[in-house]
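Revision sheet: structure tokens.
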Amino acid sequence: MEVGKLCLADNDVTNAILAFKAAGQPEYLNEVGDVCLKNGSLKTAYEVYQMAGNQMMAAFIKQNFV
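Predicted:
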């Protein structure tokens, strides 16, 4: 989990996703989705929110940006 936070702090989204999934902490994927959304990486944000089970944010992106 700490590795994921460090990766996220360095904007290393790919490794943050892998670290949070490996740690069994999918709730932290929402933070990754937030970073992706702020960076304009809408496709990645959509996929990450789906992985996190955050259907509300995934639907928001799909309705407003896709």
